[in-house]
Every structure is written in C-alpha cells, then in structure tokens.
C-alpha cells in the first residue's frame, strides 16, 4: 500500500497552497463581508489551470487525475471556500459531465472556454420543491422536433449569475418518471433565461448563488446530453464525482481550522505559558488532527477509486458525510481555541465555521449520503475493494 502523493500531485498541492496563501487570503474576509464575487481570483485560478483540472489537454484542460484535483481543492478550501465552490462546480459537475457524456461537438463548443475561465459553468438540478428528492422535477422541456422548449425555476444555483453555461435537468416525459428526465446545455445569453436575485447566505458569501428562471427557452436538440431519458442518471453520475470535490472542500475547512488553531495556540499566552501548553487546548488539537487525517484518507481513497476506474459511489458519499462533519466539528473547536478572537470577523476561523455548514447540505445532504451508503451496504457492499 502506497500513501505517498506522486511528484506531480505534490507540485499541484504546493502551487494551490501558494496561490491560496498569497492571493486568496489577503482579501477573503472583505469579500465575504461584502458578498463580492472573486472575479480577479477566479481569473487567476483559470490561469493556473484550476478550472479544468481533469479535462484532457485536447480540450484545454490539465489532464490531471482526481487525486490532484482534491489536493488542490483541499489547499484552496483552507483559505477561501467561495473560490473553492466555484472551482468545484466548474470542474466536477460541469467539465467532467461534459467531457464524459457530451458529444464531440458539445465538447468542442463548450469545454475549452470552460477550462480557460472565459466561460463559467453551473449545474441546475435543485428546484423550490425538488432538493433531496431530485426525481420530482417540475422544470419541463417539451420536445418540438428539432428543439425543446424549457420552462421552470431552479434554486440555489452556484455560479448562477456569473455563468455562461448551465447544465439544466428537466422533465421531458412525466409518465416515464426518472426515465423521462433529460439534461441540457443552456447558454445563459439565450432569450428567456432570467437570473434572479443573489442569495444572502450564512457562508461562502462571496460565491454567486441565484434562483434561475427559464421562460420558454428554445434549446436545440443537439444540446441534449446523452440518449433520450439519460438526464437523471447523468445528474447522479456527475454528483458522485462532485461529492468527492465537496468532501475535499470539507477536508480543507477541517485542515485549515487545525492549522490556524495550532499557530494561534503557540502565540497566545494564558496563565504564564502558550495555551498550546495547556492540556485542555492540546487535546483539542489532537482530536482535530485525528479526525482531519481520517477524513483525508476517505477523501483521497474516493478520488483514487475514481482514478482507477472502480466504483466510487459509496466511497464518495462516505468521504462527503464524514469530512463535512469533521469540517463542522473542527471549525467549531477552532473558534473555541481562539476564544473571543474566534468570534470576530477579523480572524478567519469564524468564517470557516460558517462555511463548514454548507458542506453538509449541498451536492446531497448528509442524510442523502447516508441513504446512498445504507442502500449499498444493505445490497451487500460491506467491505471496500482494496
Ligand atoms: N449513478 C448512476 N445511476 C444512479 C445513481 C448513481 N450514483 N444513483 C441512482 N441511480 C439510478 C438508479 O439506478 C435508478 O435507475 P434505474 O431505475 O434505471 O435502475 C435511478 O437512478 C433512480 O434511482 P433511485 O431509485 O435510487 O432514485 P431515488 O428517487 O430513490 O433518489 C437519491 C436517489 C440518491 C436520493 C437522489 O435523488 C439524490 O442523490 N438526491 C440528492 C440530490 C442532490 O445531491 N442534489 C444536489 C444539488 S446540486 C448542487 O448542490 C450543486 C451546487 O450548486 C453546489
């Protein structure tokens, strides 16, 4: 068994760390306070190749493996989770979905621009009445022969206001249930695409989350992804990979909380010595380190399984549910270690604590991850394949 990252993966980790510490950290608190979209930072992420990491170089991507992607996500998420969710959605939901299931023409038209950051992508599945219950799509796409007419509303769409490309899931035949769902590539400049107000959120506040309305949008037939009726499976397959990205984001929050707490505890003194020398604090750090490392193993393993072409559905859900709970606990403990300073916006840990919560919700809540895991366990998937 080899737990070592390759030289290439280590180089990606180092580049992401340097970028996050030098370019993201300085303005992260301010962007969060003002809900200002990190336009310049996203441009730099694109320049560094972080927006299309796993896409083949043929389409302008980095041609990297999933492990490289998660180590980059981890480093960026230690600092700025608005940036890392933008990166995650573009990489694992939009680019990966298009490269894996799109036609050659779709890849030529959309992928290169999505990798270079010229365009940003969004994944539009959730609706006001279809969150966890994703088969209950109310958005419809009526087949008109050479095109579809799309109508409906999507909620909580990351990159909603800044994206040029939407992957939209819609019901084309209600009678067929989930087999009557399709996925479409929609250009947001088409007539009938209406971007609603930006959400004012608890965390990841600089990221751009919107409600989107599609009013009689004409979608050419060649913009459907896959065979007729493939849309729900497309969404599920894409989300399995997406969950590894969010698990890596959660890991970054946990690890970032630990790093900040270690540094602070060595500087801050109480009762005549650094608080790290008090067992009450040192044991908190030990528990955080323990849990973060366990999360890291689950996240890296899920990414590795995907790279090996093995089944990673359960592994992705395990990584996400565990890492997001670790993120939450570590961030809460980090605030505690920082005491009063942890409760004010001048220090990064209160922002990490607010950001941690969403990792238990988006791309499938912790309850949905447990549903996926329990179904697979009950189907006999008791022991992972090594
Ligand atoms: N891969 C491939 N196919 C899958 C699959 C997977 N991981 N999971 C399910 N399927 C298939 C099933 O095999 C089944 O197909 P057949 O009938 O042909 O066998 C079909 O999909 C329906 O599956 P289920 O019967 O299991 O469907 P269900 O109604 O019980 O729902 C669910 C399953 C797991 C609960 C699913 O609805 C789900 O994942 N819900 C959560 C949705 C979610 O994650 N939303 C996140 C929004 S996106 C987001 O947050 C992005 C962002 O902006 C950050």
List the defining traits of the structure above.
alpha+beta, Butyryl-Coa Dehydrogenase, subunit A, domain 1, Butyryl-CoA Dehydrogenase, subunit A, domain 2, Butyryl-CoA Dehydrogenase, subunit A, domain 3, four-stranded mixed sheet, four-stranded antiparallel sheet, globular, binds acetoacetyl-coenzyme A
Q: Could you describe the 3D structure shown?
A:
This protein is of the alpha+beta class. The chain has three domains: 7-114, Acyl-CoA dehydrogenase/oxidase, N-terminal domain (Butyryl-Coa Dehydrogenase, subunit A, domain 1, Orthogonal Bundle), CATH 1.10.540; 121-231, Beta Barrel (Butyryl-CoA Dehydrogenase, subunit A, domain 2), CATH 2.40.110; 233-378, Butyryl-CoA Dehydrogenase, subunit A, domain 3. Helices cover 52% and strands 15% of the residues. The chain contains ten helices and ten strands. The strands form three sheets. A four-stranded mixed β-sheet has the order 1-4-5-8. Strands 2-3-7-6 form a four-stranded antiparallel β-sheet, with helices on one face. It has a two-stranded antiparallel sheet with strand order 9-10. A hairpin with a 2-residue loop joins strand 9 and strand 10. Helix 6 (231-267) packs parallel to helix 8 and helix 8 (313-338) runs antiparallel to helix 10. The mean pLDDT is 97. The structure holds acetoacetyl-coenzyme A. Acetoacetyl-coenzyme A binds next to strand 3, helix 6 and helix 10. Acetoacetyl-coenzyme A binds at residues 89, 123, 125-126, 132, 134-135, 157-158, 178, 232-233, 236-237, 239-240, 313, 362-364, 368, 371-372.
